[in-house]
Every structure is written in structure tokens, then in C-alpha cells.
Amino acid sequence: MEEEKSVQFSSGPIHHAEENGHGWQKVTYAKKQRKNKTTADSFGVASNGSSAVPEKNNVFKNLEKNAEARRRTLEAQRAAAAIYDEDDVPVRSKKRWGGEDEDEDDEGNDADGNLKENVSDEAKKKEKPKKVKKPKVTVAEAAAKIDAADLAAFLSNVLVSYEGQQEIQLMRFADYFGRAFSAVSASQFPWLKLFRESTVEKIADVPVSYISETVYKTSVDWINHCSYDALGSFVLWSLDGILADLTTQQLGSKVSKKGGQPTSSKSQVAIFLVLAMVLRRKPDVVINLLPSLRENKYQGQDKLPVIAWMVVQASRGDLAVGLYLWAHHILPMLRGKLGSNPQSRDLVLQVVERILSAPKAHGILVNSAVRKGERLISPASLDTLLHVTFPASSARVKATERFESIYPTLKEVALAGAPGSKAMKQVSQQIQAIAVKSAEEGIPELAEEAISIFVWCLTQNPDCYRQWVSCSWYFAFHQVVHL
């Protein structure tokens, strides 16, 4: 309200030129008037003294709206929480509003929610069902499910789909058996243990013996159309895969001995089966691969059982090829480090003993002594055979007697051929040089056998007499002949 002060003067009347105040005059203070005006404006008081309704600030409007929304949200949460079971976790708003009471409620809800979640997780872990173990499938069970008609249809389709690509065709052929034996675990086909602990006779038909005759015939008939080059590449690929698995198992064995987790190994049934069928149907493929098989990665005591198994498979297809591979690849190993290993000698002997024990083996091998211009037992192989059969008395071992029993047959094959032929004249000169060298080593048994071979050379080639005269042991031999 506006303040006014009036002052009355006792002197004579005051006359104003413009208005008549009857002697009274209104006096105001300018400073206080300005102050009151400012206050009135802030509260919406008009300059004419009338008052207006003050307007609300926008900040307060937003606060009121947020408070109302917050109140509705809390009521909705309480209503929803009332219908939940004790095990259910209430859905909490992601928005957090100011206020101490609300913070305490949120913290309580968080604690309850986390507790229930932890209990739920622990319950799930405890109630997790045990993994059902798959039934073990044996090699025989998997082989029994292979249908020959389905295999034939598959191979026919492969020939059409991959025409002119024989290496891919062979891979697809292997894939078919890979799927057929995919359920067979490595424990059901422990080939490494089997090869190490079993005789050659026992592993000779592994794993071919598991499949039916119709499946085998369908397979080998299809293999017959493949070229030697494609089959050679496939044989090396298969062998590399087997030796890679061998390395894996050896590393796993070392790790397990140290207390670690052994490396798992996949079943190799399919690759052994397909490789065996290829070697039986086209055994000559291995002869072409001999230069590659002499590489270091295919040498060694640990790899010998696999190589021996391959030679046995080839001999099932052709006895002559089997003996050729034994004489040119396995027997020479005895001249190296493997010759001092009893297990190696035994394995080498088992392979040739199986070949020689086959029905009609003697006649087949003697008649096939020269095959495609090459001798089954070369002069170099005969030299090795002489030294393992007739060692010095101090170097005799258990294997010596076994070599002595098979030597006559192998010697007959080594010396077989058409008498007087150009080929026999050439080989007789090579054998004569070996006989002379062996006779001069000073081992009585070896010298005696070398002299008998030397006499044979004289009957095959008259040119051998020149070598006879120049020999230092001529007089000793001359005395033996006369005696």
C-alpha cells in the first residue's frame, strides 16, 4: 500500500496556479516511491495500484509434473509387486528419481533381486541334467550298415560329377567310408596298439575283414578304372594321414605320462580300409612309389609296422609284387640301424614268412622271378640276404635260424631265369662280384655259400671264368672242387 505524508503550514494559505488544494499539498519521497514500484512490479502490481495474479515459474511446473509421474510409477510398481510370487523377480524401472526414501527402496530391491538371481543360477547348475553318453559303435556294426547298392550309386554319381578329375573322385570315395565309420571312436579301433602288439598274421586283414564281400567287390571294381598316377598320389596322401595320426598319438602318450591331458585321436578305420583296397587291387602302385618311400619321413622303427602292413596288403593282390617290395624296401633296412633291433628283425621276417606260406607261393615266385624286366630279388638284395643268413658265429641271433629256413627258397628265386639268355649273363656277372667279395670276408659259412654261388655263375656265363682266374682264393676253391 502506498504511504503518504501530509504537512500543514500555519502561515497563510498557499495558492497553486493550476489546482486548488485548499491549503493542503501532497508530499512524496522519490527514492521510496521507486523502491515500492519495483516491489510491486515483481508481485504483479500495476502502476495504477491494481494487483494481478502472479504467474508460476516453468521450473516449478516441471517439478510438479515429474513428481506426479514418479508417484504414478511407484504406485504401478507396488501394484505389480503385489501379484508376483515369492520366487519371481519384480520388474524394476530403469529410471531413478531423487529422494532418500526412493534410493533406499531401490537398494533393497537390488539386494533382493541379486539374491534371487544367485539362488536361481545355483539351482540351475544343480539341476542341470547329465550329458547322455552316445552308445559306442564298433567297427563291425558300422561296416554292417554299408549297403553295396548305395555305394555303387554313389560312385556312379561321382564319376559323372567329377569327370576327368580322378584325384577328387578318390577323395570322394574315401569320404563315403569316412561318413560310414564316423560314429566309430578311436578307442574302438586302436590301430597303433594293434600294430605294435599283434603279429602280421593278425593284422593282415584289418580292417578289410569287417566289410561284406559285395561292398569289397564294388569298391575294387571301381578302383580299377583309376590311373596309376592318381592312385599313387592317393596312396601317399593316405599314408601321410596315418603317420600324422601316429605322431599325434605319440605326443598324446608323452603328455599323459607327464600328467597332462592326452591329445585326442580320430578313428582311422576309413583311411586304412580304402588304402588296403587300393593296394590289393593295384599293388604295382607301391613299386612306383619306392623312391618316395625311401625319404626320411617314411623311415624309422615307429613307421615300420605301417610299411609292413602295406606290403602285406600288396602281396594279397600279387605275391610277386609283395616279395619285390620286401626284397627292395624292407630287407635293406636290416643293413642299417634297424638291423640291431630284435623287433625290427622279427617284423621283417614275419612279412616274408607270410608271403612264402601262401598257397602255391613257391611256384608263383620262381616263375615270376623276373617281372617286367626286373628281378624280384636283385643281386643287392641277395647280398643282404647272404649276410643276415650267414653271419659270424659271434653275431648269430635268434632270427638267424629263421633266415636259414627261408634262404633256400629266396636263393632259388634270386637265381631263377632262362639259362644262357642275355639277361642271365648280365645278372650272373653282378652276382659273381658279390660272391667273390663275400668269400673274402673270412667267415667260413659265408665263404662256403659264396663259392657255391660262384660256381653257378660259371654255368651261366663263360665270361665269368676270367674273374675266376684272377681271384685270390682260386687255389682254395680249386682244392675244394677236387675234394
Automatic annotation (TrEMBL):
A Gene Ontology term for the protein's cellular component: endoplasmic reticulum
Name of the protein: Uncharacterized protein
Upper lineage: Eukaryota, Viridiplantae, Streptophyta, Embryophyta, Tracheophyta
Organism encoding this protein: Olea europaea subsp. europaea
Biased amino acid composition, Acidic residues: 100-110
Biased composition (Polar residues): 39-51
Superkingdom of this protein's organism: Eukaryota
Region of interest (Disordered), ranges: 1-59, 93-131
Biased composition (Basic and acidic residues): 113-125
